[in-house]
Amino acid sequence: MHRFFVAPSALQHQTVTLTGPQAHQIAVVLRLRPGERIVVLDNSGWQYLVELQTVTPQRVVGRICERSLATTEPRVKLTLYQGLIRAPKFELVLQKCTEIGVVAFVPVLCARSLVTSADETRPAKFERWQRIIAEAAEQSGRGKLPVLHPVTTFGQACRQARGLALLAHERAPARPLRTVLQTVERPFAVSLFIGPEGGFAPEEVAQAQDYGIVPVALGPRILRAETAAIVATALVLYTLGDMDEPSHGG
Questions:
Q1: Are residues 214 and 167 in contact, defined by beta-carbon separation less than 8 angstroms?
Q2: Which of 18, 71, 126, 239 has the CA that lies 20 to 30 A from 173?
Q3: How does pLDDT run across 187-226, given as a tens digit for each residue?
Q4: Rounded to two decimals, what is the model's pTM?
Q5: Alpha-carbon distance 248 to 242, whole Å?
Q6: pLDDT tens across 2-53, in order?
């Protein structure tokens, strides 16, 4: 069943109204008709089963048949601090890590980033990234949209990290990720730092440690930045039990 995130204002009493690209997708791309059903979400953790009543490329109106709490949101709130990488790779990270369960993304300008903050702060680019996140969240059955934060510096990212903070690094003093996760109590929040194409500079690793961020290794092989983000996200949520069964809360 097709899923769509909508603004809370689209829900009025027992009716939901979709316009713009969503109406076009329903009417023209998916060719849904009155009487068929979709699921809409208001980004609060609730989902609504909706029976379509009016379907045009400009406006779709449906009747809310059922309201339920989404059970697909991870209990561990994982924020991914991704060192800035080239746009196609960063967009892959946004898509796949949304599917896996990241709740927030923070693009980080690092010493070895091959792109500049000016390249990545244009409104059009952020709008595209938001669309990628929304489409991935709808496709994967997420109950809430991951938050996309503005580009920040590495130092500021270290200061704002919360919960269990981990930094993927291929050399000492990094310890195996599984070892670190098995020696701590289950955290409510995890801040996961992944470097850019060239990895983190030694001074960044030292700075992170000063803030209590733990360097962790992802294995004996060197992973590309986008691969490391996807693998580390999956490993953290799997090891902490968030990929076993649906959770009950958002």
A1: yes
A2: 239
A3: 999 999 999 998 999 999 999 999 999 999 999 999 999 9
A4: 0.90
A5: 11
A6: 999 999 999 998 999 999 999 999 999 999 999 999 999 999 989 999 999 9
- What residues are paired with 19 via a beta bridge? 59
Of 176, 180, 151, nearest to 165 (Cα)?
Answer: 180
CB 250 within 8 A of CB 144: yes
Three-state DSSP class for residue 247: coil
Q: Which residue has the tokens 């704002």?
A: 160
Structure tokens at 209: 């440690």
Amino acid of residue 112: R
CB under 8 Å to 194, separation ≥6 — which residues? 80, 81, 82, 83, 93, 168, 225, 228, 229, 232
CA distance 41 to 241: 25
* Closest residue by Cα to residue 95 from 125, 121, 134, 124: 134
Given phi > 0 = left and psi -120 to 50 = alpha, else beta, which region is 137?
Answer: alpha
